[in-house]
Amino acid sequence: MKRDARAPGLTRVEFARWIWRQLTSMRVALILLFLLAVAAIPGSIIPQSDTDPLAVRDFRARNPGLSEWYDRLGLFDVYAAPWFAAIYLALLVSLVGCILPRTWQHVKALRTQPPRAPRRLSRMPAYRRVEVDASPEEVLGLARAELRSRRFRLAADRGDGAVSGEAGSLRETGNLIFHLAVVVVLLAVAGGGLFGYRATVLVPEGAGFTNQVIQFDNLSAGPMFDQSDLPPFSLDVESFTMDFVDSGHQQGLPEEYAAEVTFVPEPGAQPQQRTIRVNEPLEVGGSLIHILNPGYAPAFTVRSADGTVLAEGPVAFLPQDDNFTSTGVVKVQVPPEQGEDIGIEGVFYPTAVLDENGPRSVFPEARNPAVFLTAYHGNLGLDDGTPQSVFRLDLDDMEQFEGANGEPFRAALGQGETVELPGGAGYITFDGYVTWVNLQISRNSGKEIALVAAVAAVIGLMGSLYVRRRRAWVRADVGPQGRTVVEVAGLHRAETSADDHLADEVGAITDGLLLRLSGSYDEKES
Question: Model-level pTM?
Answer without folding.
Answer: 0.67
